[in-house]
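User: I'm curious whether this sequence folds into something compact or stays loose and floppy. Could you predict its structure so I can see for myself?
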Amino acid sequence: MEDMSLPTLLEQAHRIHLLATDSAVHKVPFYIAELIEKSGHDDRIENLKVSQSKIKEFLAFCDAMELVPEDELETHSVVDRRAKKIARFKRQHAAESKLLELKERKERRGRSTKAASPLSTSTLSPRDDDDVLDDDEEREAWLTTISLAICKALDLIEMLKKEEEMLSAIKENQAQEGGIEISEAILEERAKTVQDWHRNAAARARYMKPATPITCATFA
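Assistant: Here's the prediction. I'll summarize afterward.
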């Protein structure tokens, strides 16, 4: 950052401010995509297409904010894709650890505040507590939450694309062969893939909610 010019620094600061202000709104398409994907609508292929569209909308916003890692934007070979998945897994793990660290840090400081003299905290109204923010930690929490959401969105859209391709191929095969039943093995494979993804997503769900505003009063 020391090498950045003043206009560049101001532009970066403005971008981060917009992100912290609007990120909850811009993550809505991603959450909608998850809900659509989990819905029990009869036309599964249509569900998959709509869900992918919403994820792309979310990723487009992140790309415009220059938050999507460069190695996620282009893939040239199977080796590249494998390396990309490994790097994504590491980013996801780092984001989860960072959010947990921020949460624990806030809880520790909260306990310290409560243990302090009641007179020092009773004079602060809830509004005062909200108005005096620790900008660095709030920004870090938002950026980390977005980073984790990007990892999750990229994993989900890859899974949905594969499922759509598989179901489309099955549908085409049925049309050509007069409605042959979908093999039990294929159905089991699809169900296992979806269940595994949702199980992993559920385990990470607590990290997907943005941290509550971190204030000087809370961290005193």
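Summary: The longest helix spans residues 135-176. Confidence is low (pLDDT under 50) at residues 126-133, 210-220.
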